[in-house]
Amino acid sequence: MQKAKGISSKNKWPYLFITPYFLSYAVLSLFPILFTLYISLTDWDLYGNRNFIGLSNYTQLFFHDAFFWKSLLNVIIFMAVYLPALVLMGMLMASLIESKLIRRKTFFRLSVFSAYMTTPVAVGIIFSLLFDWQGGFFNNMLMEMGLIQEKINWLGSASSSRWVVILMVFWKNLGYFVMFYTAGMASIDTSIYEAAVIDGASSKDVFTRITIPLLKPINLFLIITSIISGLQLVEEPMLLFSGWASGSSMVGGPDGSTFTPIWYMFDASFNGSAFKYGKGAAIAYGTFLFIALFSVVGMKWINRDGDDK
User: Domain holding 191: CATH number?
Assistant: First the structure.
């Protein structure tokens, strides 16, 4: 009994050391999550009116709210374009950096990754300046080259606005993909490549049959995290249409073409005259459900070959 008591007394110290973390997590993370869930079940506005309405916010959101579905469709379109481009270009650039053609590998890795270290606010301002219809860089360049006769309002139409957002997200995240792929390629045993070359494999065969399959865990991580971040996209498109770059302040861009679920949540909760906190909380949890759904689907799709075996 004395021995058991001594062991119990000795083992209590690790729990005492980790207790502050769990307390801070409960106060700063767990409580806000649960309280937001409660808010989503109420009709709570700026004036303190708080009525419990159950799942009415979710019913309205999923079955009657066209803006939510449009915002969700927008981010799906964005990801369907820039995510395959990031995977392809990330692998090709990483392969080039890790090849014998590049000597100063660290310099090129840092140069590519520097875009990802730029804050979303700075990225939004940069692309606002590039695509400003009055004095933007692209309009001036195209006019100097004689390719256009009058300036294009890139942020004034639905189709071109979407392409600007896609290009912006692609530019910012390319370095993130390249860094993971270069790390993955550097960890592959060189003897595998040497054996393939001895067997007569071409560079294309080595890349498609050895490099890509061995990078599958990295692809899984990058795609899932990109889906999560893509569904949370808000700062970049919001800054593009803040007013000074697009000519007028437009919530969601022209025809709502760049509206995102998180932008919709912000607009419903903190913008305008309604201040519907319950609706905003429901949008947040509705977006979380789709993040979980798309993440599971993405994992199943990437691992489909392994499941078949």
Answer: 1.10.3720.10
